[in-house]
Design goal:
This protein starts with a strand and ends in a 14-residue tail after the last strand. About 2% of the residues have low confidence. It is α/β, with parallel strands linked by helices and 653 residues long. It is 41% helix and 19% strand. The longest helix is centred in the middle third of the chain and has 31 residues. The relative contact order is 0.09. Bound molecules: ligand ME8.
Amino acid sequence: MSDSRFYVTTPIFYVNDRPHIGTGYTMVATDVLARFHRAAGYDTRYLTGLDEHGQKIAQAAASQGLEPQAFVDKMARPFVDAWSLLDTSHEDLIRTTEPRHESGVQKLWKTVAERGDVYLGEYDGLYCIGCEAYYTEKDLQEGGLCPQGHGKVKKIKMPSYFFKLSQYTEPLLRFYEEHPDFVRPASRMNEVVSFVKEGLRDLSISRTNFSWGIPVPGDDKHVMYVWFDALSNYITALGWPEDPDGLYERYWPEAHHVIGKDILRFHAVYWPAMLLSAGLKPPRCVFAHGWLTINGRKMSKTLRNTVDPLALKWEFGNDPVRYYLMRDTVFGLDGDFSHDALIGRINSDLANDLGNLVNRSANLLHKLAGGRVPEKRQGGEKEAAVRARAETVTREAAEHFHAFEMSRAIESIWTLCAETNRFIQSSQPWTMKSEQDAPRRDACLYTMAEAIRQLGHMISPVMPEKGRQILTQLGLEAPPMSREPAWPSAWGELAPGTELPPASPIFPRIDKKSVPGIRTRLGVDRAEAGGEQKKEPGKEEKSGDGLIPIDHFGTVDLRVGIVLEAQPVPKTDKLLQISVDLGEDSPRTLVAGIAKSYSPADLVGKRIIVVANLKPAKLRGVESRGMLLAATYDGMPRVLTVDGEAPPGTKIS
Ligand code: ME8
């Protein structure tokens, strides 16, 4: 086991929302970092999780008429499913309703209290439920609005336990000075220091006006403030305080919290103060990344749905989307998600640059070297230049990954891609046909193949599947998904004589003609038109053969739904009223003429197919918002269902 360790965490996401491109962005970035560190030989642990307590969750549960525990159990599913489909390589996913977490947090509370840092008082001030945060007047936007866009904040007055945060002003400032890299990027460190220098006020850490939280030890009229509970996940997931598996001791000293800039204060001020109070070490680093907008607009509930990371996976595959997210935004700064830019990157960087290089090289090896890795020969200056570039990039890209500069690491890797493309062009191995040319030809082809192997290794943290496919093209047995190809890999490890499989393209181009269909399927046009589908008059496509173009099919939004409840519609023997989970904030009501074939109980739990973008219609006084699909045979409707697992809201294409 390596001595070098790396522990990387994501924020634990609130389960009142569903996974979207913003949370997906944090997951991809942390996954890339975890995979890079594993490849570089670090003993790595990668943690994500779900934040399941607090007033925001309690309210969301109530709005669905569910008990909070039933609500969070239901809402945890889409996250677990999404991360599994996106193939993120976390070792652990903690839920704050798990006993291992709750007991750890209570222990942390007791430790802080035993230090004399907790007292009972009264909170009389402002609170934003959307942020689950306390604010003062000067934090607010004009009109008393939440600075994070959650609308009007509330005034609350209640008995509350307080944490003596004010006493940590000096210790924190000293800690920041001794650990100048604690908050990254550096500009964020300055922000934190200025905030703390203004002086800290004690922090209210318990609530009495609702009960969905971890009880305060010794006073169960209070539940803990959700952030006291949530921040502790980073150590409770390691097994603190008992540490039965030694994970806390092994990984905590190397903790790196990757978060969005919206929650920096909690991680860089409150959390280290809590830890210092408990006599524990603060994490090594808090890295705050920027905010992702969508097509230049702030994310909204509607727009988020159109950038569902799973819809992108089905359309483009995971790796191109990961590549785009890591390449197009500088990690730490704000960035924009644009479907057009994503398609642009797929066609230029992936299909043209890397894809052409790999495919062209595989074809050359078949044509000129009989489908085997050629002899390893010295070659001339040109070969030496490629090798030198590969060695520089191996070092440079690793430095960038270590510094969490993913876009710069990729840029560096692409210089090797460009250099290898130029090398093939100028060497023209296809002209080296005679026996006499054999040594030169071998040297050239070996250098080309070896450069591609290095590229396969180096892009693997960003594009694990594509990296493996590249290695497979070189006849190498790619390591299992759970193990990354090693970094660095010394030049010249490709064994001469290795038999190569037939060449097959790895990075397909997206044809311009298919772009309108993609935009329709992903709902981009609808979103850009503000929710309405644009139709150009007179532009209807007609076809005399009764066939429709694919994008007509794409205008029907078919989704998987899970039936939650069903009941007969009064005064009819045909209709059932069904409540269906389509993965939205609240279930939809559908009315379907299937009562002849199904009793309500038969339907509950079925995964059905729903037309989700149908205009609402009233049937016997009940508004139906969508239509389920059924095949009617012999007068008996049979409901269409899904073969196997598919979370509610999954798009059918
Ligand atoms: O804050 N761009 O959870 P949360 C980039 N439970 N990243 C985004 C994003 C966007 N538009 N939208 C969300 C919470 N994120 C707390 C955390 S941790 C102890 C408790 C990402 O569900 C980003 O990482 O609101 C952000 O910090 C996180 O999702 C917020 O997730």
